Description:
By secondary structure, the chain is of the alpha/beta class. Helices cover 33% and strands 22% of the residues. It folds into 2 domains: 7-22 and 114-165, no CATH class; 27-101, no CATH class. It contains 5 helices and 7 strands, in the order αββαβαβαβαββ. α4 (98-112) packs parallel to α5 (134-145). The model has no long low-confidence stretch (mean pLDDT 91).
Amino acid sequence: MTEIVNRVKESGLISIDLADYKSNIAIIAIDITDVLWQGLVLKEKDFRSWIKEHDWDQYATKAVYIHCSADAIVPTWAYMLIGSKLHESGAFYVVGSKLDLEKALIKNRIEEDNLEDYRDGRVIIKGCADISCPEYAMTELIRFIQPVAKSIMYGEPCSTVPVFKKKKK
């Protein structure tokens, strides 16, 4: 009886699954509209009072996106004050949309990888994953891995699309 051999595993290909870069951290929004006077105007005294009284500890292990859903002019320092409190609480945060936050979480996760794991490797980035903005994740992986990889492909080991191949010196 012949032993079944996993030729893909023995090929030395490094397979990356985009799903590995999906964050499991809870995402919360802070909408500045909620603290605007009549949903239109930021009153500094009221805003600073909200900043002081708000429970910032609730964000300690969360990812937060700060935005304003109203068509209001919000001074830059308002975002800075919220950011400062979120920083103190240990939250990960961005100013922008939920998608902006998800992209930042993906980029952080990619940068946590050990680049040496890909040195002179033949890398395949698998494309089927439940991840927001897969194009962003893939291009960030390219930016991260290409300087050290021998080659980068897209797809599955049985059917790949070449993306990059290091030039021979």
